[in-house]
Amino acid sequence: MTAWKSINDIANDVQTGAVSALSLVNQALETIETNQQFNAIIATLANRARERAKQIDDRVKAGEAIGRLAGVPFIAKDNFLVFGAETTAASNILKGFNAPYQATAINRLEAEGAICVAKANLDAFAHGSSTENSDFGTTLNPRDPTRVPGGSSGGSAAAVALTMAPFALGTDTGGSIRLPASFTGIVGYKPTYGLVSRSGVVAMASSTDVIGPLARTVEDAALVLDVMAGRDDLDGTTIERDTADYSAFSGAIKGRKVGVVKEYMGEGLEPGVRKSIEQAIDQLKRAGAEIIEVSLPSLPAALAVYYIICPAEVSSNLSRYDGQRYGYSFKEAKSLDDSYGKSRSIGFGKEAKRRIMIGTYVLSSGYYDAYYKKAQTVRTKLINEFDSALAEVDFLIGPTAPSVAFKIGANTADPLQMYLADILTVAANLVGVPSISLPAAESQNLPVGLQIMAKQRHDRDLLAFAKLAEGIIK
Description:
Elements: H1 7-16, H2 21-34, E1 41-44, H3 46-61, E2 73-77, H4 104-111, E3 115-120, H5 154-161, E4 167-172, H6 178-184, E5 187-190, E6 210-215, H7 218-228, E7 257-261, H8 271-286, E8 290-294, H9 302-317, H10 336-347, H11 350-363, H12 368-392, E9 395-399, H13 415-419, H14 426-431, E10 435-439, E11 449-453, H15 459-473
Parallel strand pairs: 2-3, 2-4, 7-8, 7-9
Antiparallel strand pairs: 1-3, 4-6, 5-6, 5-10, 9-11, 10-11
């Protein structure tokens, strides 16, 4: 596997003519081709990518300034609308769908010269923690092909770990960027809710969906975030970005208050993961960080809250896939109702159906107050607890996942066990705070992720601290 330079260095090389954008695209496509056995990629955009690369090379020769991502290849999770290939969200119900427009995040990256070369595999509609729910087959973990890469952005994470591209895009609804980053040994960043536009991205749970980068380093992730961040008229939930560059790092570890979340270090954590995280905490302490134990009493309820609110929003968002306007449609239907029923029955996979049923149930008359309303009440309590904790400390830390990557098939027969993989990541989505997973010391020769969280809108501060921590905990 040929290692990539930093994104900044790649862009500089293209802009100065030291390397061509076309050669970079060809390198990415060749790496994808030679690693097909990992099933990280659903489709390549070879023709469009090469055409864009040639245009960039011509502009460089003409003396034009391209942008901060000049010629940098990247991979988009297949729930991003992108020209040049179908967008399926890894579900049969969207096979054959070609996007009529592109996601805002894609447009902003391309405006700075980045080139999308492929669409990555995922759990269908981003429903899952292992990338085993894909209608295009399971993605394998590059570190151990008998294990999962995490999910739902497993294809994106595996692609970066396999050096198919310098970075990839993922979505994080309950840990879907950070969990695969932890399982594959790379950096995964979930920004503050609303910092990156979700326009043109297939919706899962709209109150927790976040877009972010998967990369090899914090520096690369920060640069990609800086390009994508900011308000978008096409997404009413977007917020103003920081006026400063997210990749403009400053500060030091010494004197920063770091809260170790008590509930994250308790029962259910694999011994090897615990040892790795404790080692990282000790390294931060020796670097001058002030380590404080912090308790978030409602945290044990976060997973239950998430798996009430998330399916409720899923059941609403998936109602648009009815077989009438786009995607799969059952052609032999005898009536409109029959077309609805058969198209959805055949098109949706088991996990999508499970979440639709759970979500519809918790929103139904007689159960709304007992489940959905109560879950939203606990969510507010979680928000208050995070606010209080982050008023006392600068950052909250703990493991990203309770275990290293598990074996393929280990949890497929037990949905509850599969959902437990998200137990340490869902809270950040419920409360909307930024969170990052960094590679820490390994366990069983497999990657372990250290999770760091900060206050809402403190993304730049979090990335700067993570950049410092990155050099200490490896």
